[in-house]
Amino acid sequence: MRIATWNVNGLRARLDFVAHWLKARQPNVVGLQELKLQDAEFPHEFFNDLGYTALVHGQKSWNGVAILTNGHAELTQTGLPGQDERGSRLISADIEGGINFTTVYCPNGKTLEHADYPGKLDWYDSLLDHWQAAEHDARVLCGDFNIVPEAQDTWRGDAALGDIFHTDAERQRLQAIKNTGLVDLFREKYPSEQQFSWWDYRGGAFHRKQGLRIDFLLAAPSVANQVSDVVIDRDYRKKQDGLTASDHAPVFVDLAV
DNA sequence: ATGGCTCTCGCGGAGAGA
Predict the structure, then answer these.
(1) Distance (Å) from CA A59 to C1' B12?
(2) How far is CA A224 from CA A5, A31, A143, A191, in A?
(3) Is A144 a known active-site residue?
(4) Which pLDDT tens digit goes with each residue over A65-99?
(5) Rounded-to-integer distance, Cα A119 and Cα A116, Å
(6) Is the CB of A57 within 7 Å of strand B?
(7) How far apart are CA A16 and CA A13, in angstroms?
């Protein structure tokens, strides 16, 4: 089974690009973030024609998450309890293989001085509470976390320490999530490789190798033990057939189930 | 030092993203 996470930066603008990727990689389950559309605007038929069904938690203009699958999925959660005012950023479903799958679009925070920054930390505290309250042996938490875990996950290395995305306060929140028993599947397979999942559109950042690794698939040990491959699909950060890419690459793992 | 892209809304330019 192949499961993936991808911040598409606007699903309507990315529709043909996403279809291109689905055909090429044939994932079984995909967590999507930054749909930037409402539930009623979700192009279900478009995905049905590609063999996928979707569970959607949308919002006008901003945020929005969904789960695509070419198998069976049963919705178990929409929205992070207590954080409705920060937008549609979480959706969960029971998928095939007895796995509970959650995808999140964590708040950005903007700057250390902006009110969104303490809001980001508070959102993470709620995510930890929510995650700890649920019990499931085989679960996956994936998405755009908007936090750089370690110096090797940013092109700026130690020089970025203390900046937004790279603060101790943010890293402590991300670590607290992992401490509930989740493994960062990419980092487990590649302990010292520098690979990024996001590059700024501006200034040729992609070609300058100026990126961040902020998109993760985290999994409980019973799932992590089944992983055969982990791929940050940087080819799909490039134009495909003249279509514009998201500023995030898809990330996927293959499981032996 | 800054932000040169790209998205949305909506039809001009602004806000957000990371």
Answers:
(1) 24
(2) 16, 17, 16, 15
(3) yes
(4) 999 999 999 999 999 999 999 999 999 999 999 99
(5) 5
(6) no
(7) 8
